[in-house]
Amino acid sequence: VVPGETALAFYKAKNPTDKPIIGISTYNVIPFEAGQYFNKIQCFCFEEQRLNPQEEVDMPVFFYIDPEFAEDPKMANVNLITLSYTFFEAKEGQKFPLPGYQ
Amino acid sequence: MSTAMNFGSKSFKPRPPDKGAFPLDHFGECSAFKESFMDCLRDNGYESGACRQRAMAYLQCRMDRQGPAGRGGRSPVQLMANEPLEKLGFKDIMDEKAEAKAEKL
């Protein structure tokens, strides 16, 4: 990807059980310092998503790397940024502690 | 899991997406567009820039489709809220298209 250019990526999730699962996902960016430059325009995270038994779905992420990434001397050696998601099973009334979100 | 070497290190603070969450494409209505995009990436050494047209087509597919009814029987939501593609970082491609159209006339 080129900083400043919007990009699309896909993850896939499968519910291998015979019961529907409601999950919420959160993400992590490595290296840590690159996280501030990672801008998600839209993704599947932070909201409950329901997966039916045996269902497999594509999960898109539409994002861009802030162009200032290219100006930051600390990022000069960063050639690989890894975005990972963890899917948690949602519990009744569970909210993620995200100040200012909704 | 704490070590003594973590003075002043911040924990990662996730930020919400600018335009919120994508509803799941339960019926795979846009899977063909996704496959086309992934084929392009594989053919181009995973260079995102080479496949922007197909990325754009995937997002357009989402905007054109409605998913299943929301929970509690709410009416179906679009797979993606309508947004001019120029605002999603595809202005240069849209400008090219507009020029090509203008030339044909």
From TrEMBL, chain A:
<dbReference type="GO" id="GO:0005743">
    <property type="term" value="C:mitochondrial inner membrane"/>
</dbReference>
<dbReference type="InterPro" id="IPR023471">
    <property type="entry name" value="CtaG/Cox11_dom_sf"/>
</dbReference>
<keyword id="KW-0812">Transmembrane</keyword>
<dbReference type="Pfam" id="PF04442">
    <property type="entry name" value="CtaG_Cox11"/>
</dbReference>
<keyword id="KW-0472">Membrane</keyword>
<dbReference type="GO" id="GO:0005507">
    <property type="term" value="F:copper ion binding"/>
</dbReference>
<protein>
    <recommendedName>
        <fullName>Cytochrome c oxidase assembly protein COX11, mitochondrial</fullName>
    </recommendedName>
</protein>
<keyword id="KW-1133">Transmembrane helix</keyword>
<comment type="subunit">
    <text>Interacts with CNNM4/ACDP4. Interacts with RANBP2.</text>
</comment>
<comment type="function">
    <text>Exerts its effect at some terminal stage of cytochrome c oxidase synthesis, probably by being involved in the insertion of the copper B into subunit I.</text>
</comment>
<dbReference type="InterPro" id="IPR007533">
    <property type="entry name" value="Cyt_c_oxidase_assmbl_CtaG"/>
</dbReference>
Automatic annotation (TrEMBL), chain B:
<keyword id="KW-0963">Cytoplasm</keyword>
<dbReference type="InterPro" id="IPR009069">
    <property type="entry name" value="Cys_alpha_HP_mot_SF"/>
</dbReference>
<dbReference type="InterPro" id="IPR010625">
    <property type="entry name" value="CHCH"/>
</dbReference>
<feature type="domain" description="CHCH">
    <location>
        <begin position="30"/>
        <end position="63"/>
    </location>
</feature>
<protein>
    <recommendedName>
        <fullName>Cytochrome c oxidase assembly protein COX19</fullName>
    </recommendedName>
</protein>
<dbReference type="GO" id="GO:0033617">
    <property type="term" value="P:mitochondrial respiratory chain complex IV assembly"/>
</dbReference>
<dbReference type="Pfam" id="PF06747">
    <property type="entry name" value="CHCH"/>
</dbReference>
<comment type="similarity">
    <text>Belongs to the COX19 family.</text>
</comment>
<keyword id="KW-1015">Disulfide bond</keyword>
<dbReference type="GO" id="GO:0005758">
    <property type="term" value="C:mitochondrial intermembrane space"/>
</dbReference>
<dbReference type="InterPro" id="IPR051383">
    <property type="entry name" value="COX19"/>
</dbReference>
